Amino acid sequence: MRQIPLVNLQAQYQKIRSEILSVTDEVFSKGAFIQGEYLETFESQFNSMLGASSGVGVSNGTSAISLALEALGVGVGDEVIVPSHTFFSTAEAVCNVGAKPVFAEILEDEYTIDPNSIRSLLSPRTKAIIPVHLYGNICRMSEILEISEKHSLFVIEDTAQAHFAQTNKRMAGTFGDVGTFSFYPGKNLGAGGDAGFVSCRDQKIADRIRKLANHGRVQKYEHDEIGYNHRMDGLQAAILSVKLKYILEWTAKRQSKAKLYDSLLGERGFSSMRVPQDSSAVYHLYVLRVSNRAEVMEFLKEKGIGVGVHYPIPLHLQPALKAYQSASMNLQLTENLAGEIISLPLCPDTEDSEIEIVAKEFLKVAQPSQTMHRSRTRSAIGERDHHHLQSSSFN
Ligand SMILES: *Cc1c(COP(=O)(O)O)cnc(C)c1O
Q1: How far is 50 from 163, CA to CA, in rounded Å?
Q2: Extended strands (E) in 21-164
Q3: pLDDT, tens only, 1-19
Q4: Does residue 253 carry a pLDDT above 50?
């Protein structure tokens, strides 16, 4: 049976294999494993494509967020507003610097943080906001910046899923004080392992992040603060420079494939996220809402079609984050969404003919979501689906 994977990294590798092998050989031949010229080159290429003033390559997208928070002085006693509907890292990084994550609601059709919810959660302890450009959809940045300016808050954009998404030609990750990126292999721009990036508006913040990520050192064996080993490898930087040449082409493919899904599924009442005005989404994932998810997942898996759920348990319901939950939290839209979302195969190497097959099979069983006009209780969410969700191999 023909298998259609959720993401096809092998197909991508076959197209760039000789270039990857050649830079790998260069890095080994020069012994340029840690930092060095490949990292410098990648940093300047990525910064210039983003239009960011400065940026630092780091070990992964999670350390990128915690380094950014620490460099901005966010820590113990501070509150950081994050969406509840995101990958775990967003809140994990907040906890890792000793601050408290405060969970915000999403916009019903865009799946990104709701600025009104941010306003309702402000307190004298609020120090920062982390909007997450989830699925490659850009957040309502002008409204978020209005709030942050009015209340003197830092904005850290979690751009792990949104490389080169834009609003009015300005790139995601360059609106706030800092933008953090992940190059986890399954992300739109993926390394050959873990890697991440922090883009900064202020050179001083970039310098601080670079120092913190490198053992707080000012010279080889002189350390003026306690830092971490959160550096990006030379090998990852070299691989990323190869892939960066193709990223805009790959992004255009994601966008046209998402459009194809939209046109095949729209008539039957299914739609992906709404993209804000004057913005372009980069479709890290193609996500739909269905009311019978367990059934749809089982059916598609039987047909050899890779499906995922990103993410089944909202952060405010995660066992590890119990300490940050409160009875007064009302995140109904987030809970409804978590019970209904499903991700269909989409990457630059997904063939149009594969999308046609997926759409056809999907339409045989999927029922559109009814929740827009219906309220569900917390206990109804996900219970039945839960055991189907273990096999997703991408964040
Ligand atoms: C992947 C991801 C991260 C973490 O990135 P890693 O490189 O895996 O540490 C953070 N936030 C979001 C939204 C992500 O999707």
Answers
A1: 9
A2: 54-58, 79-83, 100-104, 126-129, 154-158
A3: 789 999 999 999 999 999 9
A4: yes
Amino acid letter at 156?
I
Distance 313 CA to ligand 1 centre (A): 16
Please check the confidence at residue 366 and state whether its pLDDT lies above 80: yes
Q: To 5 degrees, how large is the angle CA 87–CA 320–CA 160?
A: 15
- Asked whether 60 lines ligand 1 (CB < 6 A), one says yes
Residue 114 CB–ligand 1 contact under 6 Å: no
Q: Mapped to the 3 state alphabet, what secondary structure does 308-352 carry?
A: ECCCCCCHHHCHHHHHHCCCCCCCHHHHHHHCCEEEECCCCCCCH
Sequence-distant (≥ 6) Cβ neighbours of residue 275 within 8 angstroms: 110, 137, 138, 281
**What pLDDT score does 372 carry?**
52
381, pLDDT greater than 60: no
Is the pLDDT higher at 128 or at 220?
A: 128
Element (H, E) at 357: helix 352-365
Q: Taking a C-beta distance cutoff of 8 angstroms, is the pair 75, 105 a contact? A: no
Check if the beta carbon of residue 213 is closer than 8 Å to that of residue 272.
Answer: no
Q: Contact, 59 vs 196, CB < 8 A?
A: yes
Residue 42's pLDDT is 98
Length of the chain: 395
How far, in Å, from the CA of 23 to the mean position of ligand 1? 26
Q: Under 8 Å CB-to-CB from 326, ≥6 apart: which residues?
A: none
Q: Do residues 4 and 358 touch, judged by C-beta distance below 8 A?
A: yes
Return the residue whose CA atom lies nearest to atom 6 of ligand 1.
Answer: 61
pTM: 0.94
Whether 75 shows a pLDDT value over 60: the answer reads yes
* Ligand 1 site, residue 132, Cβ cutoff 6 A: yes
- Given the CA of residue 62, which atom of ligand 1 is nearest to it? 9
What confidence tens digit (pLDDT) does each residue in 155-198 have? 999 999 999 999 999 999 999 999 999 999 999 999 999 999 99
Any atom of ligand 1 within 6 Å of the Cβ of 395: yes
